[in-house]
UniProtKB/TrEMBL annotation:
Localisation: Cell membrane
Keywords linked to the UniProt accession: Cell membrane, Membrane, Transmembrane, Transmembrane helix, Transport
Species this chain originates from: Lysinibacillus pakistanensis
Residues annotated as domain ABC transmembrane type-1: 75-280
Membrane topology reported for the UniProt record: Multi-pass membrane protein
Family (UniProt): Belongs to the binding-protein-dependent transport system permease family. CysTW subfamily.
Keyword Magnesium part of the UniProt annotation: no
Protein name as catalogued: Phosphate transport system permease protein PstA
Organism phylogeny: Bacteria, Bacillati, Bacillota, Bacilli, Bacillales
Residue stretches spanning the membrane: 21-46, 79-100, 120-140, 190-212, 218-238, 259-284
Keyword Ribonucleoprotein among UniProt keywords: no
Length: 292
């Protein structure tokens, strides 16, 4: 029997421990660099925009004068946009995920569909803007409306929601389904009363991340030709509108220094909306996690 050489073992273990410490330091430095960069960015935005973030800024419309510029039309327009994007994308996304995971057969065609849905999640947003311009603006004649932009943004985030919902549904233990079937429940009753409630935390997490991306995207809106300056609020789904990213983009590209501070104030408003959306999602997710 061959005996283990303690010296060789200690030499290899020392090498492995040293290797582990080096990578641990590397990962710590990478995390620190990211956090410091984020802190500097937040500090710069807050210090530049906090003085312009007033009640008048929230209630005024856009203006060519920095001290009179406001974000009312853009803020309300973004809320209208999310009012279209959220129900369309979540209903279609979760419905597609339920079909693919619970009803679709395991064959090459469905595997091909799943693979392409995952690939669509990485397509640049400007491509979806061109698609929305061709289909919704020109073919369907919706124009530069809330509905056209909302449907375009829904296409943009739909693959992300589908993939997230699939993973959440797939993570539900099969024992829960079998117990429901054993009690005499149908497949649809099992999905509604067992699978979906257990998968809601994961579905909400993916959905809120996707909606956060949609509310901050500028490229598709630029392609659709959404205006940056409006002096009225949208009064329907077919009404013209502007959005927070478009308004911030317009202010940031202006040469006057004062508009850079106004753009920073707009970014603070956009971040506040995102934090509110995430807070609501976290609250709902935690509520369902306690029940299931």
């Amino acid at each position: 029997m061959r005996y283990i050489d303690d010296k060789v073992v200690m030499k290899r273990m020392t090498k492995r421990i040293t290797f582990n410490k080096v990578w641990k330091v590397f990962f710590l430095l990478a995390t620190t660099f990211a956090l410091v960069t984020l802190a500097i960015l937040l500090y710069r935005i807050v210090t530049q925009g906090i003085d312009y973030l007033t009640f008048d800024f929230l209630k005024n419309y856009a203006s060519r004068f920095a001290d009179k510029a406001g974000i009312k039309a853009a803020l309300i327009g973004s809320l209208w946009l999310m009012g279209v994007v959220a129900p369309v994308s979540i209903i279609l996304g979760v419905g597609t995920a339920i079909y693919l995971e619970e009803y679709a057969k395991k064959n090459k065609l469905n595997d091909f569909i799943r693979m392409n849905i995952s690939n669509l999640a990485g397509v640049p947003s400007i491509v979806f803007g061109l698609l929305g311009l061709t289909i919704f603006v020109r073919m369907l004649g919706l124009g530069k409306s809330v509905l056209a932009a909302g449907l375009t943004m829904s296409l943009l985030i739909l693959p992300v929601i589908i993939v997230a919902a699939q993973e959440a549904i797939r993570a539900v233990p099969s024992e829960q389904r079998e117990a429901s079937y054993g009690m005499g429940a149908t497949k649809w009753q099992t999905i509604v009363r067992v699978v979906l409630p257990a998968a809601i935390p994961g579905i909400l997490t993916g959905s809120i991340l996707a909606l956060s991306r949609a509310i901050g995207e500028t490229a598709p809106l630029v392609v659709l030709g959404i205006p940056v300056i409006l002096q009225f609020l949208p009064n329907g789904l077919l009404s013209q509108f502007t959005a927070l990213p478009m308004q911030i983009y317009d202010w940031a590209k202006r040469p006057q220094e004062a508009f850079q501070y106004v753009a920073a104030a707009g970014i603070l408003v956009l971040m506040s909306v995102l934090l509110l959306m995430n807070s609501i999602a976290i609250f709902i997710r935690n509520k369902f996690q306690k029940r299931y």
